[in-house]
Amino acid sequence: MSQRLQSIFFFLSALLFALLFFLPLAEYHGELNILRFNVYGVESMLPDGEVPFKTAFSLPVLILSITVMLLSGYLAMGLFRAVKLAQFVKLHKIARINIIVIVAWIAVVFAYYIRVIGKPIGADPTFKVGVFLPLAALLLSIAAASGLRKDIKKVRSTDRIR
After folding, report:
1. Domain ranges across the chain
2. 3-161 belongs to which CATH class?
3. Beta-carbon contacts of residue 56 (< 8 Å; ≥ 6 apart)
4. Do the Cβ atoms of 58 and 71 come closer than 8 Å?
5. Cα gap 100→141, rounded to integer Å
6. Which residue has the higher pLDDT, 33 or 100?
């Protein structure tokens, strides 16, 4: 079984979301202000710049990021201990939830936050490396869930042979 490879994929997915706390997602260069969008909020890059958004504005992005990190970490650790078919099925369900949460994160950020943040200062976003990390995490999670599904089929086929 390829549980270790899938564990590595889920661990890398959690690590990519952990990197989001240190990397900006986008910057907005307006005439009077420069804003930087991070997972934990919007901040002004100018010393006297005013931020048009409150601290709680990006709370959904923060909550979704922490949720993905916790789910991916749980999956990475759980796959090392999984032996029985019921454990694999449970982990596969959690993996599907993890994929849904990552897709929700991508949808929320791209459909709402990226467009709304630049409006008050009249600026278009300049995407930074952080915005592409969830896409890589999504691909890793899909690959791991696919491998997990194959492992479930293998375990079921060996149970039939006995």
Report:
1. 3-161
2. mainly alpha
3. none
4. no
5. 10
6. 100
Tokens describing residue 57? 């504005």
Cβ of 78: how many Cβ atoms within 10 Å?
Answer: 18
| Tokens read off for 10 | 């889920």
Long-range contacts of 66-71 (CB under 8 A, 24+ apart): 67/101, 68/13, 68/14, 68/17, 68/98, 68/101, 68/102, 68/105, 68/134, 68/137, 69/14, 69/17, 69/18, 71/97, 71/98, 71/101
User: Other C-beta atoms within 10 Å of 39: how many?
Assistant: 21
pLDDT of 161 higher than 90: no
Beta-bridged to residue 127, according to DSSP, are: 26
| Non-local CB neighbours of 59 within 8 Å, separated by 6+ positions | none
> Which contiguous run of DSSP H or E holds residue 86?
helix 85-108
Taking alpha carbons only, the member of 91, 99, 63, 97 closest to residue 75 is: 91
Q: What is the pLDDT of residues 49-59, one digit of tens each?
A: 788 888 888 89
